[in-house]
Amino acid sequence: MISHLNQNHSFHFFPSTYIKPLTPPVPFSVFLKVPSFTSSTPKHFLQVSRVHFIHSHFSVKRVSRHVKVKVQDVLLDYLHSSRGDSFMDAEFISTNSPSFVHGLVSELHGQDEDVARCLMKFLRYNPINEFEPFFESMGISPRKIYQEAEEVFRYPSGLLLSKFRGYENLGLSKSMVIKLVVCCPSLLVGETSSELVMVLNWLKKIGIEHDWIRNYLSCLKMYESRRMLDAMQFFHKVGYSEEQIHNLFKENPALLLEGIEKKVYVFLGRALKLGLNKNVIYSSFIEYPHMLSNKCAKNLLGVIGFLYSIGMDTDGISHILSNHMQLLSLHPLKGPKSVCLQLKIRKTDLFRIIKDDPLKLISLASKLKQNSTVQLSCDEPSKHLDKTTFLLKLGYTENSEELAKAVKKFRGRGDQLQERFDCLVETGLDYNIAIKMIKRAPMILNQNKVVMQKKIDFLRNILGYPLDCIVAFPTYLCYDLDRIMLRVSMYAWVAKRKATKPRMTLSTILACSNEKFVKYVVNVHPEGPTIWEGLQRLLQKDKAESSF
């Protein structure tokens, strides 16, 4: 099941106790009966329910935990007893659809003590659209499902489950199936996608695990199995080995998931006709994955056209592209006539200048303004280029003010930044979520890989929290590990004695000033200051011993 954590998790650290996971596991079977409302037309199933309408259009007062539990119990009983869902499925749906529960509460006008009785009476005469809590519990937007696959809402009992099972039988995990369905609802229509089966077989053949895709799928984008298959077959026909295709997709997941753009196909075709070695092209794509974008391919096609226009032969063009492909891919060029008029020279003179120094093509013909903060030819061109390449992969716009600011915020070479970013993804974070975190808190990548791993290990193995909790609080990774251990240990001691709030958030513990932490955490217990001083001395002792 896909869970999106949009808020900072409450923090409760007790090493000796079991910590219940934030999101319960997906039940083995998700069996949903279609509501049998008495209606003359099937459209009733597809309309937004009254509960959802009220919840969407009117503010709902804050629901107390006591009322929430009662409503969840009534919903569980309704789904299990009245609608015939299994107890396991009914429990999972009722406890993982908070928005729907709030909508039900908005229908009730009784006191909190009467909420269970009022809700049972309401459900007796107002059947609900079970698809709403069902899809919400799985993290799926019903609107998106309806827009792309409205047939799903008319499926008879058991058919939806069989669709999920069909994809599970291909060797996909439940979480992978759900992520695929969220990103591509059309997979639920008709038979199991034969193109998707071919894609999975190709991935297995080149040594990529099926679940690897899950980390790079984004619910905000659309994916087509046909385009994935075309990309695989194209590289195979060009002559790349399975290992090379494996490396291309691993280095640039979007190349597989979003397919190859039309301009990229055209450029690759022309480059091979010019005589460029396919291994040279492969090396460039591996080192600079952004070159496979439509924009870069268009720029390179412009380079080929420009060089042809000034009379350069295929060998000369091939030589220039082989040695300067990455740099040239970043620059759209003016036309040869415009350059000649501007410089007041003939094409033959321009040809001779570029042949002697191919990089003059950029300085003389580039359409880009030579901005000193973004221009690649700075004091340390190779270092800046690597960093710029990495930032372009994160989604920054080329030669923009935003990119210029980002270059100053990130410290280290491009390959070092890439290694630190890969460390985040390898721990289990979604690729797109990791990018959002980095843009919110660039300082995360200004520390070495070992320090990042220590902080993540402490979060998981000592605090007992899932990695997802840093999505809403990415600056956790920016705090010193000593500060984290010291404050968390102190808070755990105080919380265990019930002297402070039992569920203080991780951001509150770490982000507040020392004065506030001492006032609201340390001093709330008579023995707090003594324990605080003891923890500080213990930490200093450990640091002194480790330095020898």
UniProtKB/TrEMBL annotation:
Q: Give the superkingdom in one word.
A: Eukaryota
The record's annotation in Gene3D superfamilies points to: Transcription termination factor 3, mitochondrial
According to the record, the signal peptide region is none
Note the InterPro entries from the entry.
MTERF, MTERF_sf
Where are the annotated coiled coils located? Answer: none
Question: Quick check: keyword Transcription in the entry?
Answer: yes
Q: Does the keyword Electron transport apply?
A: no
Keywords, alphabetical: Transcription, Transcription regulation, Transcription termination, Transit peptide
GO aspect biological process, one term: DNA-templated transcription termination
A Pfam family matched by this chain, by name? mTERF
PANTHER family reported for this sequence:
CGI-12 PROTEIN-RELATED (PTHR13068), MITOCHONDRIAL TRANSCRIPTION TERMINATION FACTOR FAMILY PROTEIN (PTHR13068:SF103)
Family note: Belongs to the mTERF family.
Protein name in the entry = Uncharacterized protein
Gene source species: Flemingia macrophylla
